[in-house]
Amino acid sequence: MTVFSAQVLTDDCLHSFPQTDRQTGSVLAAAMTGASSFIRQQGCDPDIIARSVGLQIADDLPPTLALRLEDYCNLFEEVARQSGRYDTGLVYGQQFQPDQLGLIGYIALTSATLGDALVNLAELFPYHQKATQTRLVRMPGGFRIEYRITDPLISRRAQDAELTMGMFCNVFRRALGKSWHPDAVWFEHPCQSTAADYAAAFDAPVFFQRGTTALLFSDIGLDVPMPAANAGLLSVLRESLTRLDHSQHLTTDGRDDLLLLARREVRTMLPQGIVKLPVLAEKLGVPRWTLQRRLESIGVTYTNLVDETHRSLAQTYLRQKGVSIGEIAYLLGYSEVSAFSRAFRKWYGVSPQAFRKEL
């Protein structure tokens, strides 16, 4: 079998990821290939989703354009919320092929063997997606490839983790055939969908609320050649990816930027209680009437902005089983659990406890 290089770690160093300087997350736009048509297949309107998350959704974006990772994660969380399909990440990842992933995908495909592809994937994925750590770890009888977003401001990332594991699976399948499946899959987050959905995606045991997200696999087949192996092209691709500048983020027009900034600021202000328009305007550095007018120009009222943030975060927190109802009420700015429960029942027709029980 392939003899891995020093990038492979052993189980005795798994207690924590190595500390790195804090980065703001970004991801190359190739990771959004086909997203517009996929969103329509889920029964959602890409334009509505785009306005909700403040991200331009188009199939013709340059694949090396850097997008805000938080926006990318929120995109799939919002599709899941609006469609009611919480297997969104699973489905998107399973249909996403390595050659759609841009430079990092082609690096895997042009590697000499599957084992080499995995080493390259673990080593170079953080160049494709910043504020992210990937590791290849030796275990008894095999290995696991770990994945974790390190940007502390990105809390809604379950769909992203599930789609990423699907993308990783397809690297294996390109070498070993469509019937390949992992030995097991780990996720940091609680279960998002049904057991049948996870079985359809991975055909393997799936474990939740683990210390990291990871794909576990045996050492069989790691010396199988990658179908598109090309040492010369691989060298060029590696050089291109590692030299990319993520500082040039996708910029939407000023109106969308303002909506994105306002939504983020509202989220940070909620635990303080009532979010007042003058305070929000001051934090954004614009006059109150200017903020109000610019929001209305893109079809968003201040009240709707705050309500939508409340509703979205309430669902997100309730899916995190380790967060109590009382803590959620505090995080959303309610002084009492009863007030939060009344608001939640008004939004969704059930109590927070009933909603969580159905997950």
Automatic annotation (TrEMBL):
Domain HTH araC/xylS-type spans what residues?
256-358
What sections of the sequence does the record tag as coiled-coil? none
Q: Which is one Gene Ontology cellular component term of this protein?
A: cytosol
Query: What domain of life is recorded for the organism?
Result: Bacteria
Instruction: Name the InterPro entries for this protein.
Output: AraC-type_N (IPR032687), Homeodomain-like_sf (IPR009057), HTH_AraC (IPR018060), Tscrpt_reg_AraC-type_HTH (IPR020449)
Q: Supply the alphabetized keyword list.
A: DNA-binding, Transcription, Transcription regulation
Which molecular function terms from Gene Ontology are attached? Answer: DNA-binding transcription factor activity; transcription cis-regulatory region binding
UniProt KW Transcription keyword: yes
Xref: SUPFAM superfamilies: Homeodomain-like
Q: Which PANTHER family match?
A: HTH-TYPE TRANSCRIPTIONAL REGULATOR GADX (PTHR47894:SF4)
This chain belongs to which protein, by name? Transcriptional regulator, AraC family
